[in-house]
Amino acid sequence: MRRKGELSPAEVDRGWPHQVAVPAKTSVGPGYKIVHDFCEELSLCPRGHSFKRDREWWNVFCFAEKDHAEKFTERFGGE
How many CA atoms lie less than 13 Å away from 62 in the CB half-sphere? Predict the structure, then answer.
């Protein structure tokens, strides 16, 4: 169930198709501000998602522009 006005997963996939997964430890705690400051001028979606793989949590950052996803990957790694 979503709140009124919240983007659905399908809307995120359509509008921000270039997605990069990074280990959650990269973007939490002190890393949160570093990542979000870096993304301030990029086409980052206001909503991302997370998943767990091999007992590790990953955060997914979604971008409208392919080159923005590439810049993010160059800076923070990810898949």
Answer: 16
Number of folded domains that form the chain = 1
Two structure tokens written together for 44: 């980052």
Beta strand extents in the chain (DSSP E only): 18-23, 49-53, 56-63
Domain holding 49, by residue range, is 9-76
Q: For the chain, how many residues are written?
A: 79
Identify the band that residue 2 occupies on the pLDDT scale cut at 50, 70 and 90. low
Summarised one tens digit per residue, pLDDT across range 7-24 is 888 999 999 999 999 999
Residue 4 lies in a domain: no
